């Protein structure tokens, strides 16, 4: 799938572009990082090939359908892939939700806020969404703090299909 025909974004320090099959090695590393496993869950990605299949079946399917999905976040200064940030049509949620994850060495540097804020604005301005949501585990304090900094408000604790965890549901109306 040719992802370069879909919308990419730039901030002062970041390039945010749709995840492509060429990101397989990076996605493999990210989805097997300790915090991904702890806070998002094991996606059974055991090889770069598994990661490429995940990109194709999960990310590209939504990208083709809605024009947005998961994005790879790249640091401009050295073109290093540092994380992901995306807008997701998730089963069990009424609104599109925003999600983000970064490799451990790129946390606490403002990259997640920079990327998520850009996508939050794109949700409204580029994709015409009137509201977006977000979900996180209660123990994921970093994610909760970032959502609140972005202007999301906690609504309630919820359960969604295929996830055994109770999640904190946040909402933002434009």
General description of the model:
This protein is of the alpha+beta class. The protein is 33% helix and 27% strand. The chain is built from 5 helices and 8 strands. The protein has helices spanning 24-31, 34-40, 48-66, 111-125, 141-149, and strands spanning 9-10, 14-18, 70-75, 80-88, 97-102, 131-136, 153-158, 167-173. Strands 1-2-3-4-5 form a 5-stranded antiparallel sheet. The longest helix has 19 residues, at 48-66.
Total count of strands:
8
**Domains, number:** 1
- Let me know the average pLDDT: 96
The CATH superfamily turns out to be Gcn5-related N-acetyltransferase (GNAT)
Tell me which CATH architecture applies here: 3-Layer(aba) Sandwich
What portion of residues belong to β-strands?
25-35%
Structural class: alpha+beta
Number of helices: 5
Q: Tell me roughly what share of residues is in helical segments.
A: 25-40%
Main beta-sheet annotation = 5 strands, antiparallel
CATH class, named Alpha Beta
Strand order of the largest sheet: 1-2-3-4-5
CATH topology: Aminopeptidase
Principal-axes geometry comes out as: globular
Q: Give, in order, the helices and strands.
A: EEHHHEEEHEHEE
Distance between the termini: 32 Å
